[in-house]
Amino acid sequence: MATREWKLRQTVESHAGDVTGCDFSGTTLATCSNDKTVRLWLFEAGSFTESSASPLVGHKYGVNAVQFSPLGTALASCSIDGSVFIWNVQSGEVLGQLQHPSEAALRCCSFSPSGALLATGGDDETLVLWDCGHTLARTISWRPRRSGYLHAAFPPMVRCWLPASSAGDLRIWDARYCPQFEASLAQGTLESSYLLASCGNDDLVRVWQVRMAHRCSLWSQWVFEGHSGNVMCCRFAPGGQMLASSAGDKTTILWDVGTGEQLQRLTKHTRYVPCCAFSSDGEFLGHGL
């Protein structure tokens, strides 16, 4: 793939605590923090400025994750207080509020590709799927194992979803009936073959290939070595040819998914990097500190 040199373009400082999560929709950036707030940033006239709707305030404790809906009109955020807020991105209005059944801390929230479902997971070992229609009702709640959940993602085929646990495993679940498939993992690009990236406390980034049919087959494509601390986040660039990983070693590394080559190491961070995200056009890479 053609390479480019990534350079620091801008630093925005409004949060009063660690930035724990970030996500892009187009060139609109959402960030969340343990300062209890969510902030929105708009790219206008060559720089990112805070939206007039920002900050989004409602959580009682630190916010752990944010994700835009597929159309970019809504934003979900989840918190240590066990709450999920769904915000109108344009106005900052609260469209809905959900509460995890046990009120345990939530670590992840993820929309399905259609935006009809929202998955959440947290410290009480419970996974929840919510109907994001008119009722905002809880559709499924179950406890598949004794470990907290740190991330959840939907592959392009909405009938399945993928939670990642603090026990170090990833599993594919049927979003309609909840039986677990035999193998683990999915995220991707092709019709029935997907790529998944995972990272963790072993300082490694792994890229997997998954084929979904009547059964799920999985094999490892790459193991990326380069970080010297816990890898806290990994995100594909649009098109899936490049992957960014951010870690506790104060670095972000860019990888070529096709060749396994390390493209660039970004080292201007002054502390650990808990999150990263590409803009929808691949022109920007945001980091949280």
TrEMBL record:
Pfam families: WD40 (PF00400). WD repeats lie at residues 12-51, 56-97, 99-131, 224-265. Keywords: Repeat, WD repeat. It comes from the Eukaryota. This is Uncharacterized protein.
